[in-house]
Every structure is written in C-alpha cells, then in structure tokens.
Amino acid sequence: xxxxxxxxxxxxxxxxxxxxxxxxxIAQESTGKEDPTLEFTCLKKNDGSKLLTATLTIFRNRxxxxxxxxxxxxxxxxxxxxxxxxxxxxxxxxxxxxLGLVLPLNKEGKTECMARFGxxxxxxxAESSFAVMDAVLKMSLNLIDSVKTVAVWAFQPGNKxxxxxxxxxxxxxxxxxxxxxxKIGEGSFDDQGRFTAEFPADLPGEADGTVQIxxxxxxxxxxxxxxxSQSYPWGVPSMHGPTGSHRALxxxxxxxxxxxxxxxxxxxxxxxxxxVIIQLILIKRESKKLKL
Amino acid sequence: xxxxxxxxxxxxFAPQLxxxxxxxxxxxxxxxxxxxxxxxxxxxxxxxxxIVTGMRDNVVWGIYIVNFIFFMGVSYAGALLSGxxxxxxxSWRKPIIRMTELITMVSLIIxxxxxxxxxxxxxxxxxxxxxxxxxxxxxWDVIAISTDLVGCFIxxxxxxLEDMAHLRDNAEALNLSPWRRKLYKYLAIGYxxxxxQKKLLYFSRNVMAAMIIAIAIIVYSVLAWxxxxxLQPGWHSTIFGPYFVIAAVYSGTGVLLVLMWVFRRIYHLxxxxxxxxxxxxxxxxxxxxxxxxxxxxxxxxxxxxxSARMDKLLIDKLFRNYYWLFIFSNxxxxxxxxxxxxxxxxxxxxxxSFGALITIxxxxxxxYLIVVPTLETxxxxxxxTRLDWVRYSxxxxxxxxxFAGIAVFCLLFMIISKLVPIIAxxxxxxxxxxxxxxxxxxxxx
Amino acid sequence: MAENKENExxxxxxxxxxxxxxxxxxxGAMSTKLLAKDDKPETGKGEKVKxxxxxxxxxxIDAEQVGLARKKDIYISRDEARQGxxxxxxxxxxxxxxxxxxxKCVEACQEGHKLPKExxxxxxxxxxxxxxAAPYWFPKPCFHxxxxxxASVCPVGATYKRSDGIVxxxxxxxxxxxxxxxxxxxxxxxxxxKDPEVKAEPGSKYSPELNVPPREGTVSKCIFCPDKLRKxxxxxxxxxxxxxxxxxxxxxxDVVTNGVETVxxxxxxxxxxxxxxxxxxxxQPSVYYLPPVARLFPVDRGYDxxxxxxxxxxKDVPYVISKExxx
Lengths: 292, 445, 327
Prior knowledge:
The complex is a heterotrimer.
Chain A: H1 2-31, E1 37-44, E2 50-60, E3 63-66, E4 71-76, E5 81-86, E6 92-97, E7 111-117, E8 126-132, E9 136-144, E10 147-156, E11 164-165, E12 170-176, E13 181-188, E14 194-198, E15 211-220, E16 224-232, H2 256-291
Parallel strand pairs in A: 1-16
Antiparallel strand pairs in A: 1-2, 2-3, 2-6, 4-5, 4-7, 7-8, 9-10, 10-11, 10-14, 12-13, 12-15, 15-16
Chain B: H1 6-17, H2 22-48, H3 63-87, H4 94-118, H5 127-130, H6 137-169, H7 171-174, H8 178-187, H9 195-228, H10 240-267, H11 275-305, H12 309-321, H13 323-342, H14 349-375, H15 387-390, H16 396-419, H17 425-430, H18 440-444
Helix pairs in contact in B: 2-16, 3-4, 3-9, 3-10, 3-14, 4-6, 4-10, 4-16, 6-8, 6-9, 9-10, 10-11, 10-14, 11-13, 11-14, 13-14
Chain C: H1 10-34, E1 48-52, E2 58-62, E3 90-95, H2 104-112, E4 123-127, E5 136-140, H3 149-153, E6 159-161, E7 167-169, H4 179-183, E8 190-191, E9 219-220, H5 226-229, H6 236-240, E10 246-250, E11 255-257, E12 262-264, H7 265-272, E13 287-290, H8 300-303, H9 308-311, H10 318-326
Parallel strand pairs in C: 3-13
Antiparallel strand pairs in C: 1-2, 3-10, 4-5, 6-7, 8-9, 10-11, 11-12
C-alpha cells in the first residue's frame, strides 16, 4: 500500500513537470523576446513637487544598457493613463507632479502609481508600481551651544493638530560635493518626528564657505523618497586660486634667476662674436683703403 | 730643418687640390653608397613610423642619441683642442691644427642631424624656436649648439683666412681653375697681411680661441645635463657634466690621431706629420684617457658601493647583460692606448693610431652603456611580454643611418681636403724655423 | 567616516556601475537597435520634461529648469585646456586592499580614449617590494605630480600642469622628443610609435581634455578624464572598477568617492595610513595609496584567471617564481 502511494505521488509530480516544462519552453520559444527591467521611483523634492522616474533597461552579458525612445505609460492612482513619456538616451522617463496636485488615495491612504512599458517586437512588457503616502520634511539650521546643528522633522500632512510625526523612520543628512554626497548624519526620527545631526566644524565649503545641506528619507516603503535641501555658509571658506608661484621649473615662465643667468651668458658669448666680426669688417676696410 | 716658404708649401700641397685620383673616387663612391643606404633607411622610417627602429616605451632613446652625443663630443673635443693648441702656441701643433678645426666643423654638422631622426614629429621642429621653454635642458642644448656652430664657423674662417689669401695670390703659379680663383678671392676678403690687418686677425683668433674653449666646455656640459637632471638611476649623477667633457675630449683626440694617420698615408705627408706629432698627441691621449678612466671608475665605484636599490639594479644589469661591452669600453678602451704609449717599444705610428681607433670604438660603446641600460631599469619594473619592450636592440634602420653618418663624415673631409690644404700653410710659414721644440719623446725615454 | 557606507540600494549601485560602463560606449550603438519604432529619442538641446499641473493639465518645461537636463560634452579648446577647472584640486586614492586585478580600469580607459590594445594609460603591476614581502596588485595611472619633471623638461610646453592639478598633453604641440618619458620616474607615459589607425569622429575638434584621436609620433598618458569631470562624472577607471578600488575627488573639498562610497579624504588617509609611491623622489604625486592590509582577496585571485599573455608579464616577481616552482 505504501509503495503504491509513493508511486502515485511520484507519478503526479512527473505529470506536473511534464506539463509545465514544455509549456515554459513553448512560452519562451513562441515569444523569443527579451525581458527588460523597469524601475519606478518617486522623489518629493525641496519645492514640494514630486518627480516620478521610470528607468527602462536591459541586462545583457553582465552589462546593463538603457532602452531609448520607448513609451512608458504612467498610471497615477487610477486605471486611466495619466501620461505617456518617452525614455531619453539614459533610458529614463520623467514626469513632474506640481505641488498641490491631488491624487486619488487607496484604502490605506496611499497613492498607487504604476509605470508600464507596452513592449515591442523584441521586448516583452514590463510593469513597476509603488504606493506611497505624502510626507513633509523640513530642515532648520541652528547654532546650539556654538555647535552647528542640522535639525529635521517629518510628518504626514493634514490639519495642524492631526499631522502625524514619522516616528522611527530612517533619515540621512548629506552635504553636496562635486561628484557625490557626503553623509554627515544618519539615524531615525524620534517620537516627535525630529532628528538632529551635528554639522562637522572643519568641512570645507566654497570660497565663502557655502555648503548645500540635504536631508533625505530614502527608499521608504511608506513614503518613497523625500528630500529637502538648503544652502548655508557653514563650511570653512576654502582657499581657492593658484597655489605656488607662476614662475617655477614646470610653469610656462621660467624662474627669474634662470632668465638672468641665460641672458648674461648669451650676451657675453654673442657679444664676443660681434666683436670679432667687427674686426673682420675692419680688415676688409683696410684692404679697400689700400686699394684706393 | 729647412725653412718653409709659402710658395714652396703650396706647390707641394697643390696636388691635393688638383683633380681627384682614382683612389679618391673609389672611396668617394663607397661612402656615397653607404650614405644612400642610410637614406633608404631614413625613408623607411619616415613612411612606416618610428616602429621600425628598436626604440620602445621604456628605452625611448637609442642609437640615434648615442650617435648624437658621440658626434657632438668629437666636435667639442676638436674645438677644445684647437683652442688650447692655439693659445698655448705649441709649435708642434702646426701641421695638425687645421685637421682639428675641421673635425670640429664636420662633426658639428653631422651630430644634430641624428637628433632629428629621433624626433617623433619633425615638421614641428620650429616650435622649438616659437614656443621655447628655457627651463628645459633641450632648449639649453638648442641654444648651445647654435651658439657653438656660429662660434666654430667664425673660428675656422679666421684660421682659413691667411691660407685663402695665399691661394689667391698664387693662383697662377698653382694653375688653379677659374672658379677656385674666384672662391679664394672672395673668401680672402682682401687680406694682404698688412701690419694692421695682421694685428686685427691675430687678436680675433686669440679671442675666438679662448671663447671656443669656454663654449666647448659649457655646451657639452649642457648636453650632459640633459641626462643629469632626470631622476633615472645611472643618469642622476653629479659627475656627468665633467665626465662627458672628458670623454668627449678623449674621443676627439682619438679621431684626430686616426685622421692624422689617414691623411699622412693618402697625401704622403711624412715630412710634415712626423712621429713626434703622433707621440705628442698620443701623450695627450694618455693623459686624457687617464682622466677618463678615473672619472668612470669614480662614477661606478660610488654607484656600486652604496646600497641604493636602483643603482644596484643598474650595475647588475651592466654586468649581466652588457658584460663584454662594459669590459671593452671601460677597461680595454682606457688601458690599451695607455699601454701602447707608455712603452717605448710599442710607441710606433701604426700602434698609436690603432690605439686611437680602439679609443673611438670604446667611447661609442661607453655612450651606448650610458643611455640604454639606464632606460632598461626604470623605477617601476617593466612587466611586459613583448621582448622589444623589455630589451633594446638597434634595427637595421638605425645602423644604416649610423654608418651613413660616418660615411658623411669621411665624405665631407674628402671634399674639404680638395678645397683647402689639409695642413695650414700659413701656420707653417709663421716661424722662421720649423723645430719641434717640445720633444716629448726624448723626455719619455 | 570610512566605515560609514552610503545606504544605496544594490539595484541603484548596479545600474550606476553598469550604466557607467555600458551607456557611454554602447548607448550610441545600441539605441538604434533598442529603439521602439515609435519615436526619436530626446537629445540634449531643448530637452523637455512633462509636468502634470494642479489642474490636471500636462505641460512641458525645459529640463534644465528642474535640473534634469542630461550633462552634455563641453568642447574645450587647446588654449582653454591650459586653464584648469576653477577652484578644484583633484586627487585620487587607490585602495590596494581591494584590488584583484580585474583590469576593468585598463579596459575602460582604452575604450574611452580610443587607444590601441597595446597602449595602457592605466597599468596594473604586481608589486613585491622585496623577496619576503607580500605581493600586491598596483594600479598605476599618471600621478599628476605637483612637481612634475615631465612638464619641467618639455622643450615646447606641450605638457603642462593646470591650476586644478591635472597635467595634460597637447598632442598638437608635442614634437615627439620623448624627454618627458625619460623625465617621468613612474613610467606613466606611452609613445605612439606607429600610426594608431584611429579616426577622429567626423565634425569633432581635438581637445587635450579627451585626447582623441591619438597621434603618431606624440606622447600621451592618463589625463584624469577632465571631459568627464566637467560633467560631474568620475574618471572612466573609477567608474569601471567593480571593487570600488579607485576613489577620486577634490582636495579642496576634502572628499573622495568611488561611486558608491563617499568619504572625507583627510579621514581616509589618516585612518588607513595613505601614502604616495616613491615619496622620496619629491615629485609630490596627486595619487595616494591605501596599503594592502586586511585584504579582500588573496593575490592569487587576480593571477590565476589571467590570460597567458598577461600572466607572463609577472614571471619575474619573486612570488610568482616560487609559485611556479611549487607546481
């Protein structure tokens, strides 16, 4: 009896496999298309507008390539297409939502956004979606006990009394640099939705000490990405301008002593040459005198 | 010793200036063929690029630079010697001083041409004059070589002047062709040996002789500093300036001796260039050779003794890959000429000339050993699989141009000897008696 | 600060690295292939971004207004190239503890500057300071020294140091005397001994900041990719390195980044004991090294998988000699 049960299960598994594997193979063979990757993010910027970014790429031979010129359909909380954007040469499609635009919310109070790529002759369709709640992030820069402090606080917008602080959500504080952002603070909001970080006292800024300080909630499941930034002269004013003399061994103009030495040497030698040539001219003149 | 008259000397030397003999033509054609072969090599390089040479990213300077240094060295030696001999008024200088001056001039024309072969884009050479940077040792060298060229031409012209006048005056007696008469008349600028003119001329010659010595030393030191100011192991040596000057004078003296032997044979000048001359110049060779050996020994001893890693790598490379060349250049090249001149039995004209020939070869190898092994031992190890990137070896293009350079040297001498007496007639006539005052040989015995 | 890593998602990092290698070189080639039949791609000039207004209307504004314009290549002429990027002093830090000789830096540099395969502006050595010392992989670009011997000895001023610290070569002025190659103690320069057979892009003008195409009879070397720096992008080698070995940044800002990690330069050098190679030569390089301590990989990881013609390069290293003997 037990043996027959085993064989029954075994045969079931075989049947399932026999059905599905060819189906998969046929499915792949019949389409013959590649699967692109669609990434869809939302960033709430400093001015309150929201930037939706859809990035369409394809992964081949261990390298990722952007897919250019393809139409991405954006769905903002509804089933109807809100916009269709074409990807740029980096494979990105942007849609900017103005501050104050109200989008439909779902049961949890989140806006569901979806980006969809309809596919073409060589590529399958791709979809990506997220659901986020609106969050407000504010930053203030204060000198507290002569320590430069960056204070941020975040809450969900609502009536003033109803605004819910984003307690426990992680936040990062950065300073903008030439190629990237330097992290100067990392942590979570406290129960009041506040977080403070110390600004380093010795960080160089521009010539007048200006630095751009950025606070970000990043890749948050509930709130997406939220960013706020401010420029302030808290950096150490940096020494700009050319260092070192413009007269050196490696510069265009030689050090003064070289110029002087060379002039003295050359004028000495060539002076002698000219002197000798004058003597020769005198010889010739002598002969002319005699001929006359 | 009979005294010499201008007319007598000129008559004797006239055949040199006459039409070329069969022998002359044969040699002329031989050298011309070498030159043409070199030109074919140059054409190959111009069309296919510098890849046809042996130079690669590590050894970026090869045989061309070695030839450049060698020829410039010979030239400056000539300048130095003729200046010294002139100022010190040694009487035995007279038959050979013209040759010394000619060596200076001819080498000075050939040397810089080798640099041109090494330049990657020589249509841009004018940039050296339009955009020069005086912090660069190459610009120092350009200024120095042009100054030296002008100086040498003036100096040689001054010493030719009297001979030109004599040839012009005796044109009829010597049966010179019309174009030659015109040439000598033009070059003589109306010099007729009046007291004022003589004074002017001799004064100028003394000034230029003194200048030439100073210029030769400075200019060759500048060439040495092209290597000395870099950080490369083996080159960054404080002794390089004086070392190069001594080596140059050594090679120039060697060339002088060989030329003396050659012209003595060809033009049958046994009465004028005698054994004493060979011995006297040979003694110069001995002294300078001793200095050269001393400088070389000092340089390598300090490199070898100290423990600096790069110096050790360089010395190892010299003794491992270049052992026999090193022995030839720094031992044989120094000791053989010294032995030949030191022992009376060995002190014959042929031996001394042979010693001089060995000197010339040894010094060319010495330049090669200065340039190439250093570039093969850089601070960052050469990690490359291509053999020609690791070790340098000259290709046929480079060798063909080397021999073309030597051929041009000989060709120019052959041509000049047909235009100007190879022995300075004016010098010979200067004193009433031609006596070899400094009989160095008797001093040595 | 070295231990603080930016909390980037792996996807983002992957894309950035991937795009850095693929996009620039391939987007041009691939875009036509991957182009949907529908539209032409949006190019730099007059780039527009769609905005959904509060009224629900879809309008277009300039991408530049919202900081989304793609960074374009700026043409810098030969004269302009002699002035550096203002108010910058570039520095590179190479972490020898992470290098496993992937040679992606070498390849990216060759590709970006259209170099023949046998020319390497970035070279990776296997260094072993003495017979008993540990071997390590040593990527070596041009060090852009503050006391550059190469610039000192150039007779025509074809190579020069700019205010931002970069030493460039103007191959329109170079006469090919190779004095700079003998002057450089780090063997950083290569010479084009034959025609590299690389054509310039039609309509492009020569700029020393990209140094393409290479010219026969002139010298060239690593230039710290000023064409990319002007766009705010890292040099090609730093972007291409899969291990994040190469950090690049501005000394005045005191920050270096390898694309993933951004740290304060002074902290990095202090905490990891950064040094410069052959400091005693006094050339004051702009490239610092972090010693190969607590390495991510043993040296063999970079040696065993190599192609034979590259493997043979290291046959004189004492470690390789003893390794081969054991086998």
